[in-house]
Amino acid sequence: MLELPALGWQSIVIFVVFALSLLIATYCTYAERVIAAFLQDRVGPDRAGPYGLLQPLADAVKMFTKEEFFPGGANKALFIFGPCLAMITALMSSAVIPFGNNMSFGNNAFFLQGIEVNIGMLWVFGVVSLGVYGVMIGGWASNNKFSLLGAIRAASQNISYELAMGMALIAVLMMSGTLSLREITLQQSAPGEWAMWNIVRQPLGFIIFLVCAFAETNRTPFDLPECETELVGGYHTEYSSMKLGLYLFAEYINIFVASAVMSVLYFGGFNFPFQYELRDWFVNSQSWELASAQNLITLLGTVGLFLKIFAFIFFFMWIRWTLPRFRYDQLMRLGWTILIPLAVFNILLTGGLILAGVIQ
Fold it and tell me: For the chain, which residues make up each domain, given as ranges?
């Protein structure tokens, strides 16, 4: 058995997490087109490879080979830095998500998580908040009024909906008592209590978080920062080549991360029904070693988590091709006059139920 220090195994996990984030973001572009074609009853991508499976690679080649363009009067350094910052922050936010429980090989044991910090949720919020700077910098550095308007919209939209999202999260933290995503996940895995996923105890908080996730990722019906009917293309109007590709990939990575966070916070993360009973069955009936049975349960849990994530990604795309976008005043009114009061009510309700002993 290969013996590696803990840092070596963790480095491998971090590399795999980043690679998976990029791969899923790449094929989200393919899934977007296939789902749109299905919902609109038309043929989707079918030219590049069988069933169009090589379409994302064709898109990547197109992005890399398109002409580099710098608008007149643009700040070139910041014009390049904007999409790079958006991409870096999107990748960093996936580092603290627990994709699986512990694995052990001989004397080596590690968690399927990039890094574990006891303030994991603050890490996600902090990094996501930095991502809007990439949009702001790109919009301002383009020296284009439509790009600047799109950047201003993105900043005000993110600030407005981060408040409601943060308050929806507070209710979960009141029950869990920790900011660690791993601990929040493990608290939803008590033997025989799989129905204690947070979606059961926090349905209103989940709905608020879900709506805010659409706004934070600039997805329809909250895609005002890149509204082509008003702003041509929004903050990335002047972008071409791979700089535009970085903005597009960052959006899909943010969708992946938002789906993963919602799966972890409200749907048990890598936990699945009867996992402990299944592990004990392998140990008692099949004479497996406990470590081997736990490794299998961990892999099944990781598969289950990705199924939950893909279900949320499908939901993001389904909504895009179903609902029209809001007007800007409607978007801001929803955030400030509906979601924030609902989030405050949810906090008070959760506190009252905890004091009454109804939930723990």
Answer: 6-355
